[in-house]
Design a protein that fits this description.
Largest sheet: 6 strands, antiparallel
Strand content: 15-25%
Radius of gyration: 26 Å
């Protein structure tokens, strides 16, 4: 057997091993949810993220042995790829197998040599086939009353622990569907079908039954039932989501990845895409945990967009950062962030520390308040699309990361992130009502991050963005730390006039000392925003508020963070939640 074929088989075996381990961690999500093992859920999320990198790393010594240490021969990789295409030609998950191949190639050769001769810049296949072996959804026609339909669905998607009051939950769901979707749900004789995805979606302290309703509109409507625990280890349906924008928030780039038993992830993604047509395919793959393949899909989407547009990359709007330089393509809703070679005072972090902070965000519960990022090495851009101002800026602040050829700008390391409107810019043009709403969101963002044991550090308005749904999200991570690492203090009262008038603190300040009274400085130049924040979240200026949050975290409390408005939640007779 040719060496290249053996190597292709080794890569495919590595992929199968990775995918099996990924699925096994995911399969236990139901049991963890039923047992209310919230800390176990967090650990499983972190463990799952490490599987991919670990499997690629384990494969390299075998590849070197099989190739007689000629694994860095690019011609050999052309042959390996040709054999690999044959091996995956009928594979149910060929698209993710291609991404795994790319990861192995880059680990061996490096990103600078990646092209379609040696790796899968473009996919080897056009369409992902349906696979009867892995049924994706179950169809429930409306044959009787809506109450009977909902009762059947909840019965079929049972858990090993009981519901608090299933009849009440069924009534709540039916009432909402009649009010929000169509009064036809109250009658019979309509050709209405509810397709329910086979796997339940698990994240944090919630389980989600995800479905679509066909028969009312040309496009299917989403139908999502979030299931939660009470403090007696019983379940209840918290609400029903039928609005496409609201389901988009559930699958937002600001939230942790779902645990979903998906033997063929592409079919889950295809179903979800029909519910959220505004979402890109790469976003949906990321939402169910396939981050590496999400990068492949993003890059292909990006290349296609470049081919169909002609605008230039420019510096992103807003105040320039001291650590990162940020640019964007106006016609594309992504920003590209690179770490500067040198940081202006008072920043004392290093490039390695900044990378660690971004890795922390990837692994941690983002609580709906931190933007997900993707990390790239050796990213190629067409030079003709860069504005002169941007090229000058990048050459000035990050020359070590830049390689400029006649045709390309190659950046050795960067992050991509969803583009948002910086909060400081949003407030400049906001009405009085919008300012109040934004400041409430800003305060809620800080609180929810703190509840997830994240202290933002630099809470300047410019470091937060406003999404298209009006949510305020944090996106500048170079100073984040765990809340439990901080020492929240009240500023000591001055004992002398000299102390009171001193330009520098007269008291000692250690590395992790935080003085919440100083947070008002973040509103410098925006008195309306300051007044609104003081009224809505004034307790965040008090050290005791933060100490109480620390005590809750140290006691092991994990709070519910709802990916939908609290007013959407059903009213229950017993409001007893863990």
């Amino acid at each position: 057997m040719p060496t290249s074929r053996k190597l292709a088989r080794a890569v495919l075996n590595g992929f199968h091993s990775m995918f099996a381990d990924f699925q096994n961690i995911t399969l236990a999500a139901k049991a963890r949810f039923e047992q209310a093992d919230w800390h176990g859920i967090q650990q499983a999320q972190a463990d799952r993220l490490e599987i991919y990198k670990s499997k690629v790393k384990q494969l390299i010594p075998l590849m070197e042995t099989l190739s007689s240490n000629e694994i860095d021969d690019l011609d050999l990789w052309c042959d390996i790829k040709a054999h690999y295409i044959q091996l995956i030609s009928q594979h149910a998950n060929y698209e993710i197998a291609e991404t795994f191949f790319n990861s192995v190639f880059c680990k061996v050769i490096g990103h600078e040599h990646i092209d379609d001769r040696h790796a899968f810049v473009l996919s080897s296949q056009m369409d992902i086939p349906e696979n009867a072996e892995f049924p994706v959804f179950t169809s429930y026609p409306l044959e009787g009353s809506t109450k009977t339909l909902i009762a059947r669905i909840l019965h079929d998607y049972q858990f090993s622990i009981p519901y608090e009051d299933l009849k009440r939950d069924t009534r709540n769901v039916v009432k909402t569907m009649i009010e929000e979707v169509s009064e036809n749900f109250a009658t019979t004789g309509y050709d209405i079908v509810v397709d329910v995805l086979e796997p339940v979606f698990y994240r944090n302290k919630s389980a989600y039954i995800v479905a679509r309703i066909k028969g009312f509109t040309e496009q299917p409507l989403p139908f999502v039932l979030p299931i939660l625990h009470n403090d007696k280890n019983e379940l209840y349906v918290d609400t029903v989501i039928t609005d496409p924008d609201e389901i988009g928030i559930i699958f937002s780039f600001t939230r942790s990845y779902f645990m979903v038993d998906a033997p063929q992830p592409s079919q889950i993604v295809k179903f979800l895409a029909g519910l959220m047509p505004h979402k890109k395919i790469y976003e949906l793959y990321a939402s169910i945990g396939f981050r590496k393949h999400s990068k492949s899909e993003f890059f292909r989407d990006f290349v296609f967009h470049l081919q169909s547009s002609d605008d230039q990359f420019v510096l992103a709007p807003g105040i320039k950062g001291m650590v990162m330089s940020v640019f964007t393509l106006p016609s594309y809703d992504i920003v590209f962030k690179i770490i500067k070679d040198k940081f202006a005072p008072p920043k004392e972090v290093t490039r390695a520390i900044v990378k660690e902070k971004y890795q922390l965000v990837t692994k941690h519960d983002r609580a709906g308040r931190m933007a997900d990022t993707q990390e790239f090495s050796g990213f190629h851009f067409p030079k003709e699309r860069f504005s002169e101002e941007l090229l000058e800026e990048l050459t000035l602040v990050a020359p070590s990361l830049l390689t400029i050829t006649e045709t390309d700008v190659i950046i050795a390391h960067l992050y991509t992130e969803r583009r948002m409107v910086p909060l400081n810019l949003y407030l400049k043009n906001a009405s009085d009502e919008e300012i109040v709403q934004a400041m409430d969101e800003y305060g809620n963002s800080i609180r929810q991050l703190a509840a997830a044991n994240i202290f933002a550090g630099d809470m300047l308005l410019k470091n937060f963005g406003v999404t298209r749904h009006g949510r305020v999200v944090f996106y500048d991570y170079d100073e984040i730390c765990f809340l439990t690492e901080c020492n929240f203090r009240t500023i000591p009262k001055a004992k002398t006039e000299e102390q009171e008038m001193a330009s520098q603190p007269w008291y000692t300040v250690a590395e992790f000392d935080i003085f919440p009274e100083e947070f008002s400085l973040f509103f410098s130049g925006n008195p309306k925003a300051r007044i609104a924040f003081d009224r809505l979240h004034g307790d965040l200026y008090e050290a005791d508020t933060w100490k109480q949050l620390q005590q809750q975290i140290e006691a092991g409390k994990i709070v519910n963070v709802f990916p939908y408005r609290r007013k959407k939640r059903f009213v229950r007779q017993q409001q007893m939640e863990s």
